[in-house]
């Protein structure tokens, strides 16, 4: 009797997974239509002045190329300001050498970090104070840019008549830790939030943004309180974006893949520290919510191949359970393939999607534990335990 009950429950679970995956795939396809490319907008009648602002801490591997790309922009009116956030490597020396060759590069030495600020937030706040552009373009120091990036950003801001845009860079992934995490992260953004609904309501959970590339209208940035208003929050991009969103100001998420690229992490150590720093904060430091979501991740992405394997190996398992698990595996392969194709990730990584789900679940729970213990670390600085949005 108990065995029959267990098999019935297993069948209903796999059936529910199939229905849920159909919904996620549908959301992904609609989001792909919504997620317009940064380089797809017509040129405006007049170009607003842009201030490109780059906080840099220990970025000797990237800052030379990043600053060089920004200085080479095909845009009529802009400034590039880079702030060295108390780096302990050669970041400042590289910037000085670049500035001697191109006097258009404005360099700033970061002031000492106040006790009640996080590092990047303090750096961005100082940059914004020094800027004189109508548009504030915040980019991470590990991003790389095509010459038309600023034209694309300004054109998008004006055509969308929006106060804030965030563009998803094309992510360069090489190591296995990157391959198992970054495509999964982008998949979550593609299927986890109906992007069109974010424009119609102000629920902070239905909101997607990425801080590697943010463009604010200056007046909107000031109205939202700037980085000073979110100086304690680990996920500054989500926190400040939600403030703009809650005020009823328009924002737009775009695909920046044709103009902006990034290699977010370069090895397991960077991947682990980067994601454990931010994952728990992304879920608003709610242990129940993050636990529920990653239990669902394991159920949706890991349980179907396990049930399918058991069903194929054990003939006594009812055929309908094996069939449902097989359909779920097929839908997962389609879902991950759609996402990887959209964001130009290697397609062979799709075959390892259950391991991606397991890896991201481990990271999520590690992030929760480390953050609650005050042990989450990024670029030599401890992150605060938690500050809810």
Low-confidence stretches: none
What is the distance, rounded to the nearest whole angstrom, between the alpha carbons of the first and last residues? 49 Å
CATH class of the largest domain: Alpha Beta
If classified by CATH, what would the architecture of the largest domain be? Alpha-Beta Complex
Helix content: 40-55%
What is the domain tally? 2
What is the topology, as strand order, of the major beta sheet? Answer: 3-2-1-4-8-6-9
Q: Helix count?
A: 14
Provide the succession of SSEs: HEHEHEHEEHEEHHEHHEEHHHHHEE
Describe the main β-sheet briefly.
7 strands, mixed
CATH topology of the largest domain: Spore Coat Polysaccharide Biosynthesis Protein SpsA, Chain A
Extended strand count: 12
Mean pLDDT reading: 89
- The CATH superfamily of the largest domain is identified as Spore Coat Polysaccharide Biosynthesis Protein SpsA, Chain A
Shape: elongated
Structural class: alpha/beta
Task: Give the radius of gyration.
Answer: 22 Å
Question: Strand percentage, roughly?
Answer: 5-15%
